[in-house]
User: Fold this.
Amino acid sequence: MSFVDLKEALLDWPYDSDKISVRKIRGADGLIKIQQRVELGIVQMFAEGRPDGGRPFGHDTLLDHHRARLAEYENRNGTVVGFGLSAEECRQLREEASQYYRRYVAYFVLEDYDRVIEDTQHNLNLLDFVRDHALDPEDARRLEVFRPYVVMMNARAQAHLALREGHANSALAHVNRGLITIREIYDERGEPEAYERSEEVRILCNMRAKLASDLPAPPRSNLREKLRRAIEDERFEEAARLRDEIDGMPDQD
Assistant:
């Protein structure tokens, strides 16, 4: 077995602590790989399939393997009751989620938003599966803490993709949907106050403000209708914002 000194490769690509440095390369096998420069080396991931290139139990992902197990269990027993993920199986799924996290962050830096959406959706599906089937609720909680972040990254990628296609209103809708989902997450946890402190919410609100400032102002009549619906639905914070927006509009509309 021969070993390769990475010194030259590291010198050619200096580490920069102020940014996430990633690039695409074509490997010796002809496949596209994603590389990320980290402090003590270079992390390399496959662009397709699992980031580590593995096929757990012959499936594309470990999540796919456990979904197949669940389907087989249900076919055999006529119910999913009694199916569960052990602590070790949950640990392995957390490791898979971590791989996808590293890759979707890299894809976001590369502005490959379609791939960000795919990888964040994989992790959202994985979180759902562990939440629904972990034998120990603590194993589910260990992953659930990351749900707002994954939702935020998915919403940002959806919004950027919509902007690239010239759909600013759709971009704004994706951001708003992400904020609503994150609020629901904290409400379900019984932590509504955490929404206001959330860094993910701050990032999405900043993006929403930027998107809204770039859109033409809606007619006063539209805002009044939105205000009416907000009051009817008891969304008083939104109603107050809409009222301030109406009061600040020029008289000619």
